[in-house]
Amino acid sequence: MRFAELSGNEPIVKAMAGMVDSGRVPHAIMLHENNGGGGFGLAMAFLQYLYCSSRSDGDSCGVCPNCNKISKFIHPDIRFAFPVVLSGSSGSTVSPSEAFWGDFRTLALENPRFTEQELYAAFGFEGKKPVISVAEANALLLSLSIYSLEGGYSSVVILFPEKMNLSASNKLLKMLEEPPAKTLFLLITHEPEKLLPTIVSRCQMFRVASPLVSDAASYDDSGMLASLMDALIARDLMTALSVGEQLAALPSRESAKGFCRYAAEKLRRVFLYQQGLAQLSEDDAEASGWALSLNPRFSRMTLGILDRTVQLIDRNVNLKILFTDLVNGMYINI
C-alpha cells in the first residue's frame, strides 16, 4: 500500500516520510485509532516506504521487489502479532497467531480497514476473548534474535496490544527498552490507556483520524458531559442521575452512541494528561482540568463502561436503564 492510496491523515504521512528521509526512524511507533480507523493501512504504507528501493516524491514506488512483497504480506522481515484464542501451552516459543496467518492475510488483502470484530469473525472467535499471550511475545523475541533476512530493518506489527496479558506486556516492555539494532515496532491500538504507561512512553504516538474520531471531536452534547463530570467530581449523585435522564432522552440511539464516543475520546485525553503525556493529546483545557480532580483509575474503568454501553445500545436495551447504570458506574469509580 502506498501513501497515495490513503485518505486523510496528511500530517502523519508527512511526519512518517520525514522520519525515513532523515534516517531518524524511532524504534517504536504507536498508532492510536478508533475501530476500523485506518491505522493498519497507514502502518503498511509506512513500512512500504521504509523498505522501498526506489521511493520518490514522498511515496514508495509500488513496483520494486520490496513493495511487491509488502503489498502481498509476504516480506520475510515483517512479522505480525494479533490476539487469538489460546489452545496450547502459554509458555511455548511457537507463535499462537501463526495458525491464523492465512485467514489474517486474506482479510488484510481484501480490506485493510478491517475492524477488530471483523478480524475475530475471520478467525471464528465470536463470543470468545482473544489475547496476545506470553507465547506470542516469546516467539517475537526469538524471531528478532535472528538477523534481517534481507539486510534491512526487522519490523513487527502488533495489532491491539491492549489485549496482551501482563506477562506478554512485560516481555514487550523489555524488547522496547533494549531493542536490537534496526528493529521497528508498530503498535496499532484502540485503547492506549489499557497499556502499561511505560510501554506508551517508549513509543512515538500518532492519533489516527477517522470518521469516528471526527464525530467525537465535533459532537455537540450541549454541555451534558461537562455537567455530568461536574456533578461526579462534586459527588452529587442526584444531579448526575438527572443528567443521565437527559442522556436517556436523546433523540436517537445514534445520538446516544455519539455521546459515548465523545465521552470516551475526552476520557482518553484525561488519561494521557494524568500519565504526563500531554504532548500525545490534542490541547484540551477541560480534560486537563478533570485530570487534576480524578483518581488515576477513573478513566480506565469508565472507558470499559462506555464500551459496554455502546454494545448494549446496539442490542436495543432501554436507554434509561443504560444511562442510569453508566452514571452509577462512573460515580462508584470517581
Describe the structure.
By secondary structure, the chain is of the alpha/beta class. It has two domains: 3-209, Rossmann fold; 213-333, Zinc Finger, Delta Prime, domain 3 (Up-down Bundle), CATH 1.20.272. The protein has helices spanning 10-22, 39-51, 65-71, 101-110, 116-123, 134-144, 166-177, 197-201, 211-218, 224-233, 237-248, 253-274, 285-293, 297-314, 319-333; strands spanning 28-32, 78-81, 154-159, 183-189, 204-207. It has a five-stranded parallel β-sheet with strand order 2-3-4-1-5, with helices on both faces. It starts with 9 loop residues before the first helix and ends with a helix.
What is the CATH class name of the largest domain? Alpha Beta
Listing every helix as H and every strand as E from the N terminus to the C terminus, the arrangement reads HEHHEHHHEHEHEHHHHHHH
Low-confidence stretches: 211-218
Largest sheet: 5 strands, parallel
CATH topology of the largest domain: Rossmann fold
Let me know the CATH homologous superfamily of the largest domain: P-loop containing nucleotide triphosphate hydrolases
Estimated share of beta-strand residues? 5-15%
The tally of helices reads 15
Show the helix and strand layout.
Elements: H1 10-22, E1 28-32, H2 39-51, H3 65-71, E2 78-81, H4 101-110, H5 116-123, H6 134-144, E3 154-159, H7 166-177, E4 183-189, H8 197-201, E5 204-207, H9 211-218, H10 224-233, H11 237-248, H12 253-274, H13 285-293, H14 297-314, H15 319-333
Parallel strand pairs: 1-4, 1-5, 2-3, 3-4
Helix pairs in contact: 1-2, 2-3, 6-7, 9-12, 10-11, 11-15, 12-13, 12-14, 14-15
